[in-house]
Structures are given as structure tokens and as C-alpha cells.
Amino acid sequence: NIEKITGESRRKLEQWRDRSHQQIDRLFEQKCEEIERITSEKVQKQREEFTHLQSKIAEIIREQETTRQQIDSLKATIHEIKEKMNELEKTSLRVTTQRLIIDGAMISIESTAEHELDLSNLPTPCTTIQRPGGSKSSICANDNYLLIHRKPNLSFVDFEMNVVKEMLWNYEDIGDMCWCSTLDRFIIAKKNDIFLVEENTMTINKVEIIEETRWSSCTTSEKYLFLSTNTYRSIVKKYDLLPSIKLVTEWKFPSTCTNDEWISTIRYNNERLGLLIRNNPEKSLRMELRSADTFDRIWTLEFDIVCEQNVFFRCCSLTCNEWLVADYEKKRLLQVTNDGKLKAVVPYKNIPYYCILFRNMLAISTNIPIDIYKL
């Protein structure tokens, strides 16, 4: 089935094309705004001079006394303004553009085979990333950087584990974060707010159109943003990403979870949503796989975890549609197969809170450093 083999690769190329078009559109809009600003500044200056002239004439009329020198001065001012207005009407802006050169080397295609991971014999970390006290445990990654919080900054870490960029994070909390390839932005869920983080311009912008509510987790597909609420009887909201972020649908109790449960984490992978759901009276945790389209349940896996702490459990997708759960209660990692079976239980020396696959590396965010493993 050639279409099945090439489908995902074509989608990635389409995403690249869409992101490139968006970047061109953003640059176009910026330059249009620059043209408007330059022209408006010139016009505004003429308006201010004209208004000043009107005030002087009104003052002379009120006084009913004027000298020849004042009349000559007014005539000169009027003539000068008229000349400037004529000059302004003849003004044009020179726009110089350079031909957009797209090199075929920007996109590389190579044949690779996806292999199942066996984390039961996890090697020692190849490196660790230290963080100041008070840093949040949330981490996520795109094709270029690992995004972490090192109080008080958001830090972009490259493949050599060097911090190459930093930007100040002026907010106390970080609930969850994920990468959105469609918008070419990182997304951060902070209690009641959702933010877009742009690595090139180093800007942080709040998404104003999303309602303020208590968020627990965020994840994206090629077309949609999924958010889960940090409430009992959690709600999962599905938003269009393009042409603008807009609510498409939402799933509520009882289809999401029971009356005494809440969704700790939601993660997208290959048309599926992985959910970690906590049951409060039983203090239990389970994982469910749902359809990202219909939200129908595909499988359920109960864990032998007693949830004593009020901390979010996190998971990430692995190769071959498998999953990895960070169990901070028992200091271990839980590897789950694509059909909902427990594959490996990996004891961990520190308390694991977050896990993310970063190309051929696995990053585990703990209570102390971030451990990096080569797989």
C-alpha cells in the first residue's frame, strides 16, 4: 500500500509548505503595516502644522488686530504647508524585494525503519541539564529544540544540549506545553490562559479567543489543538488551528470520564488521543486510547498506582505507537504497547515528572535535573 507508506511523509511536506506560506503572509502583513506607518507619520505631521495654522488665524480674528508682519508670516506659512502637501502627494515609497531562493537541500528525504523501543534496560544518561530551584518540570520539543523552564527563563536547548536561546517567562505557572508544527509555535497552558511562544521572534502572545478556564493539558495534531480542563468531569475541547484558532467541538461528562474523575494528561499521536485519567475516591490512575476524530474508546489500561499527591501524571508517545508514562508516585517509568498492554516497568533513581521523545533521544524531567538518554 504505497499511499499508506507515503501518507505521513506527504503530510509533513504539506505542513512545511503551509508553514512557509504562513511565514510569507506574516512578512507581507508586516511590510504593509510598515508602509501604512511611514505614510501616516508624514500625513500626521502635515495635519499638526495645519491645525497650528488654524489656531493662529483664529487667535488673530479674536484679537481683531493684526500687523503687516503677521499677515506676511501667515502667507509664508500657508505657502510652505501648501508646498509640503504637494510634495507629499508626489511622494512614492521605493519597495526593494529580493527573489526568494528555495534550495532543495532545505528538505532531506531518507529511508528509515521505525523500531520498537525496549526501555527495560535503560542506559545511564548521556548528559543532564541542571536547573535553578523553582523551575517548572514541563518540557516539550520540536525538530530543532528542547523547550524547558529554567527559572526565570524559557530555554531552547539544541541537540548538543547547549542552551542557545532564552526568553524571560513573566508568569509564575506552567501547566503543560506542546509543539504545534502547523502554527510553527510552542503552546503553553498556564492555569487559565493559553500562550503561543515563537522561537524566531522570541515573543510570547496570549491566545485571547480561548476562554479562561482551568487547563490541565494541551496537545496538537496537524489540524487541531486539544485542551483538557483541570476539573472533575473534565471537558476536552477541540480547536481548529487554521485559518484561526476556533472551537470545533467539545466532549463532556460522561463521555470523557466519571463524576469523580479528571483528566491529568492528553497527548496526540497518529489520529489517536492518549489520556491519563485519575479517579479521586479510589486514588487510581488509568490510561485510555481514544479516537481523535470521534473520541470513541479504543482500549483502557489500569495501573497499580495509588495517587496520593495532587500532581499531574504525564506521558508521551514513543515509536511504533507505544507510550511512556512517568510515575512519580513509585519513581518509575511505565512503557505501554500500542494495544494497551504494560510492556516494561523501569525503576528510576529520581522522581520522574515529564517525558518526551526528542528525535533519537529521550528526555526525562525529574525533581532534580533533566536526564537525556540516547536511544
Description:
23% of the residues lie in helices and 36% in strands. The chain contains two helices and 24 strands. The chain has helices at residues 2-63, 68-90; strands spanning 127-129, 139-141, 146-150, 153-157, 163-168, 176-180, 185-190, 193-198, 203-206, 215-220, 224-229, 236-240, 246-251, 261-269, 272-279, 284-291, 297-302, 314-317, 323-327, 332-336, 342-347, 352-358, 361-366, 370-374. A four-stranded antiparallel sheet has the order 1-24-23-22, with no helix packed on it. A four-stranded antiparallel sheet has the order 2-3-4-5, with no helix packed on it.
How large is the share of residues in beta strands? 35-45%
> Number of helical runs?
2
State the end-to-end distance: 29 Å
Portion in helices: 10-25%
Written as H for each helix and E for each strand, in order along the chain, the element string is HHEEEEEEEEEEEEEEEEEEEEEEEE
Query: How many strands?
Result: 24
Which word captures the global form?
elongated
Taking all residues together, what is the mean pLDDT? Answer: 88
Q: Assign the structural class, choosing from mainly alpha, mainly beta, alpha/beta, alpha+beta, or little secondary structure.
A: alpha+beta
Largest sheet: 4 strands, antiparallel
Radius of gyration over C-alpha positions, nearest whole angstrom: 29 Å
The parts where pLDDT drops under 50 for at least 5 residues are none
Going across the major beta sheet, what is the strand order? 1-24-23-22
Question: What order do the helices and strands come in, and which of them pair?
Answer:
Blueprint: H1 2-63, H2 68-90, E1 127-129, E2 139-141, E3 146-150, E4 153-157, E5 163-168, E6 176-180, E7 185-190, E8 193-198, E9 203-206, E10 215-220, E11 224-229, E12 236-240, E13 246-251, E14 261-269, E15 272-279, E16 284-291, E17 297-302, E18 314-317, E19 323-327, E20 332-336, E21 342-347, E22 352-358, E23 361-366, E24 370-374
Helix pairs in contact: 1-2
